[in-house]
Every structure is written in structure tokens, then in C-alpha cells.
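Fold it.
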Amino acid sequence: MKEIWSIGAVSYLNTKPLLFGVERSGLMRMIDLKRDYPANIASALLHDKIDIGLVPVAVLPLLEHYEIVTDYCIGTNGTVASVALFSQVPLEEIKTIQLDYQSRTSVNLVRILCKYHWELDVNFKPSAPGFEKNIQGNEAAVVIGDRAFEALLQYPYVYDLGQAWKDFTGLPFVFAVWAANKAIDSNFLDGFNMANGYGVQHIDEVLEGVEYPLYDLKTYYTENIDYRLNDAKRQAIQLFHDYLKALPPLITK
């Protein structure tokens, strides 16, 4: 059996419950844990720089081989709070959308919603660090992760992408799953799965000593994020992939 498994985890608050048990388990002696934003974790798994990654579901079709390896995910059954389209103007007045450079799934989700749900004809453009602090005029932006909590306090128009998908499809949404690009020892995976579940089942313990002034994290972990990867979420992943395949290539201006 391989002695050390390289694992990539998203460096946002939403992963804290998943990693809580892992970091306190004996598994850590077998783990080289790397943290980064979602797009970089996706790239690491694609280029075989890690063995397991908490990766955006948009990257899964690009992998030559993958297996979803736990019963847990970063998902939502409605309002997710930390993934949204932010704007100074109402939805129908938006002409351009900046796409968060840290994202792979959410930027494609907003493209699906614009085409099939909101029926918006907009231009898409790439973003650069700091873009979320200066969204002006009829230009909106997708912002994900912890930076979205700051944006919630800054912009008058907020379109939550988890809720928009729910309104559109009636399904929950999955932003990221634990996926492996190779065969992983089953005993390790069993332990890793159990360790993921520990924090999800002990949110009060996860929150001990944690102060976060921008948003109530208990609400976030118990109402906004839905960590269990069930059949409805697997159905949502497949539907997302079906819509993704139907989208034209992304052209940014």
C-alpha cells in the first residue's frame, strides 16, 4: 500500500467540517495535505500532482479516470450564501459578467443559468485578484468562497446560484466532490470517509473557538451547505454535466 497519499483541499471555510475529523485522526500520518482555491485543486488533480482532491464537479468530465471516493461533498439544497452573482443593477440590466478566476464549477453554472433559466444575453470576461471589490455599472460578477460573505454586505443585488439552480431544476446542487484519479487503498478510503463525517456530525465542536464576524457559520454549515452526497445530488451532477456539454465554448471579452 502507498505510504503517503497527496490530498488537495479547498482553502475556504466550507471545508472546515470535512477536514475537522481528518486533521484529528491517525490518517494524517498518511496524508500530504495541500490547500488552495478550487480551480487550482482541479488543475492539480488533472495533472496528477495529487491523488485525491476536493474538486469542482465541472472538472470531472476532463479526467481520463476518476472515482468519487466519499459520501460527502460541498453541496446545497437552496441558498448557499457563498456563491452568487453580485451587481449594482437588477438582473435584466446586466450586460457583462466577470467570472471568478478561483472557480470552475460556479462560472459554468452561471453560464447555464444565463442561457436556460434567466435567458440573459450577456458577455463574459475573466477576472483578476481584487475584482470583487469593484463591481460597477451594468457589469456583474460571480464571486465564490469566503470573499462572497464580504460582497453580501457591499452590493444591493445578489443572485444566489444555489437557489437559482434549485428554482430552475428543483434539484440540489453540488459544487465539489472528493475525487481520485487512480485506485486508492480501500482501508484508507473507509477511514477518510468516516473522518469526513465526524465534523459534519459535530458542527458545534467544529465551531468551538471560531469567530467569524461576517456570517453566522452555524447557519452556513447546517442550513446553507448540505454535505451529504445523496442520490438527488448525484442526479444534479449528471444534469449539470449534460447542460455543460451543450454550452458553446467559453469566449471571454
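The domain at 83-169 is CATH 3.40.190.10 (D-Maltodextrin-Binding Protein; domain 2).
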